[in-house]
């Protein structure tokens, strides 16, 4: 959430948002059309990295014998 909030606060100061406000666009239109597409990429990258870190952590704990036992799945 911090990453998305930071990117949104940065993006709302851009010229294309001011241009949309000058055209008289509504707030929800500016959010959906102007802001979300610019924040989406960083959000996808962050989600993929977090999934990778979680997978590595679970694999490491299982290798060390600290994870779940074999009949139990790790991702429930």
Protein architecture, described:
This protein has 76 residues and is mainly α. Helices cover 74% and strands 0% of the residues. It has three helices and no strands. Helix 1 (2-11) runs antiparallel to helix 3. It is rod-shaped and about 60 Å long. The chain starts with a helix and ends in a 13-residue tail after the last helix. The model has no long low-confidence stretch (mean pLDDT 88).
Q: Give the rounded overall mean pLDDT.
A: 88
Approximate strand percentage: under 5%
User: Structural class of the secondary structure composition?
Assistant: mainly alpha
Distance between the termini: 24 Å
Q: Share of helix among residues? A: over 70%
Shape assignment? rod-shaped
Radius of gyration of CA atoms, rounded to a whole number: 20 Å
Give the beta-strand count. Answer: 0
- Sequence of secondary-structure elements: HHH
Weakly predicted, low-confidence segments: none
Give a quick rundown of the structure.
With 76 residues, the protein is mainly alpha-helical. The protein has three helices and no strands.
